[in-house]
Amino acid sequence: MSKGVTPQSKNFSAWYNDVVKKADLAEHGPVKGTMVIKPYGFALWDNIKEALDGMIKESGHTNAYFPIFIPKSFFAQEAKHVKGFAKECAIVTHTRLKTVDGDLIVDPESKLEEEVIVRPTSETLVWAMYKKWIQSYRDLPLLINQWANVVRWEMRTRLFLRTTEFLWQEGHTAHATAQEAEDETVLILEIYRRLAEEILAIPVLTGRKTEIEKFAGAEHTYAIEAMMRDKKALQSGTSHNLGQNFAKAFNVTFQNKDNQEEMVYATSWGVSTRIIGAVIMAHGDDKGLRLPPKVAPFQVVVIPIYRNAKQKKIIEKYLNPILTILKNSSVRTNVDWREESPGFKFNDWEMKGVPIRMEIGPRDIENNQVVLVRRDTGNKTIVQTDDIVEKVLQMLNDIHDNLFAEALDFMKSNIIKTDSYDEFKKIIKDGGFIRCGWDGTSETELKIKEETGATARIIPFDENAKNLKCIYTGKPAKHEIIFAKAY
Amino acid sequence: MSKGVTPQSKNFSAWYNDVVKKADLAEHGPVKGTMVIKPYGFALWDNIKEALDGMIKESGHTNAYFPIFIPKSFFAQEAKHVKGFAKECAIVTHTRLKTVDGDLIVDPESKLEEEVIVRPTSETLVWAMYKKWIQSYRDLPLLINQWANVVRWEMRTRLFLRTTEFLWQEGHTAHATAQEAEDETVLILEIYRRLAEEILAIPVLTGRKTEIEKFAGAEHTYAIEAMMRDKKALQSGTSHNLGQNFAKAFNVTFQNKDNQEEMVYATSWGVSTRIIGAVIMAHGDDKGLRLPPKVAPFQVVVIPIYRNAKQKKIIEKYLNPILTILKNSSVRTNVDWREESPGFKFNDWEMKGVPIRMEIGPRDIENNQVVLVRRDTGNKTIVQTDDIVEKVLQMLNDIHDNLFAEALDFMKSNIIKTDSYDEFKKIIKDGGFIRCGWDGTSETELKIKEETGATARIIPFDENAKNLKCIYTGKPAKHEIIFAKAY
């Protein structure tokens, strides 16, 4: 069960698959590309969700729920949008099964007059509703979020990173002015940055997507990009300024304070179960997961060490008050009483990435102490029983900070500035992010992608194109940009 | 916006539709039978969900997520189950759209080899996975719950009560013995009873469903049944003992402690957004909703009463510390600063069922007091500012107790025991539950349904069939049973 995984250095992709499986996070469902999120993986998602939901609500948004089914005709309203999603839709065409000669078949008489799309994202449905809800400036801004499942019929799938169905939150807001929509887009990106850095201990780059990489139907898209330990990029959250594109498509206007009709401005933004892939690949090592303490399903796992029933009883009794004070301090704690060897349990919980292991045996009880072992560093500390809560809370903070610092060092030392296309190609091959000049054309971007496999990740907010030349054409750079291979 | 609703006495069904709309809970989506749950309705659902999720976790269950798509062949595995759901499935047959002559059409080349069913419930998918997860008695019991959307393509739909897509939790457990599965089924029903009575203030009857009314694929089904204010029944939660039916269908066995292969026992159980219909119809009156305090999105709404900007400022300043202490006491409070008359606001928040209205005007400030008005009784109380938190918390408890007591009185006085079929017919016509003898045959049950429109709700756990005769056939009763018209 908790045997080793393929080393990262040997085959990162195999390492990832091994960890997802052996840490009991998820597995494939029977329909191609679908995913079963197992209890341990789901507890992780639930904690991420709770943290993000809190930030979304704090900033004035409310949750709602829109239907999973979108009429095909709605879907067709925004031309670029439908183009972006038409090739990967689940389409419902019938509504009854019947048994013929012992076979269960689709009843041809149950064919729908208009086919129905399982939402790949909800802009079209939301804006069809917003048309009813928005009449006056008093109805704006409208700040709604939903937690939902969406479906994109992908050909090549990987657990968490790309699945036919995934879970996410999608925010959809409506505003009276272009500036307000832009402010919202930026506000949300900052929430996503805080989620990544302050909750998940994953440093991210923030910036704007190119025309090619932006959301289908957006004016522009902002994103957070993280570096995985194989030096590839993972886009971990996106915030789109939709301008008036969807308002136009669904004819959503409002009466302003001067009694004039105006078109509404929109944003949308999302973070999905994909971010679990980032948690795995930004922090994990050859022993398995290393979970950021703020979202780890268990922050402390207790391994009682005993030889016989009498010792077990003594430990149980000794542990009870410790567990109570940990619970009262909101430390998520699990005691592993399974009938397995301590060594087996050590490996198993290392694989599952629990931040702190607490070992407790007869000798520890004699000395009124426990042993704490950090998952991130492997360091052992002997702690007096009275100090447990204080030490555990401190250690959880330290682990967060250390995971973040490690990942930040790693990212910083693997973002290379260059103006040589030869060096660019070499680095992309070996792994790393390139920060360089770009002439701002889609043509150049596509050629680089074709020749190197690297995609434009973002134009960073702190770009400085002055004196830079385009890495590919040598023309004066319009932007400084990050290129990398990406998930 | 908050104009009156159709009186309950005039047309209960119209009253229901009016309240759902005017309280801003939900509306129909564009695809027939789908529902948009608006922010106020969703906040109510979120609170119900949080309460139930806590009880489910406390009793040892963990959450997970199973895919929305089920292969048609899986769905066919359990004969009764498929029969129960075959006529109301959403079936995905294609995965691409394309534009031909300007029209967006389903690409015939994207036809799936095997059609995929959008889950109407997840037993078949869950048990296909459990087959992989269960090998030994050490893997049991397996106690998993999921919060998800499901789809049943209903012909006649009503918001919350019957929608094509709805939200719910579905628990799926696996056990080593029949007794453990039965204990689980009973345990969950008790959780559902507590949700209804202790959280939602809705008294319920508990008991067993007849063969006709049980879940498709279950050995037997337990349910909680509530009485709405039109004296019709609403099934508000069900807990199914599935015996070995699904284990057999998916060949799920385990090795017991004596190294013998045995078939696994199963349960499943669910509560859905339908229960919001029960909250509306068990408590609502001609002014709108009356929400149970424990799940009300806002427990207190503050209506500031002022004539000019100066008075408004004074109230704002006075209110600030009050809002802080209410927040610190976890009282969900909303201040209505809209530019509308107090009368408009009173009506609007009565429609939305907020348990307590707090009025505060210049004279109240002079007297260092506020006015509290209970939504359930309309009673006004003047409260000194220092006592606000204490009084509000007490009042919220009182409102819960009063709503429960009112609904219990109403239910008790409308459950009629009779042994006369003529009286039975009269009561069913006028409204009410009948408690009577039944010979235990499906034939009798169906005839009663045909002749009166009443269905067998439950065989109550406290039944006493001794000396009873069947209400229809006059034969010795096998069971005491509850009949009623139902949603």
Please characterize this protein's 3D structure.
Two copies of one chain form a homodimer. Chain A has 487 residues and is α+β, with helices and mostly antiparallel strands. In chain A, the strands form six sheets. In chain A, strands 3-9-10-16-13-12-11-24-25-23-22 form an eleven-stranded mixed beta sheet, with helices on both faces. In chain A, helix 2 packs across helix 6 (178-199). Chain A has helices at 12-22, 39-58, 72-75, 79-85, 123-133, 178-199, 245-249, 274-283, 309-328, 342-351, 362-366, 388-413, 421-430, 442-452, and strands at residues 26-28, 35-37, 62-63, 69-71, 90-94, 97-100, 103-106, 111-118, 142-151, 165-175, 204-208, 220-227, 233-243, 253-255, 261-263, 265-272, 300-304, 333-335, 356-360, 369-374, 380-384, 415-417, 433-438, 455-460, 479-484. Chain A is built from 14 helices and 25 strands. The first copy, chain A, is globular and about 80 Å long. Chains A and B meet through strand 2, helix 2, strand 3, strand 4 and helix 3 of A and strand 2, helix 2, strand 3, strand 4 and helix 3 of B. Strand 5 (90-94) of chain A pairs antiparallel with strand 5 (90-94) of chain B.
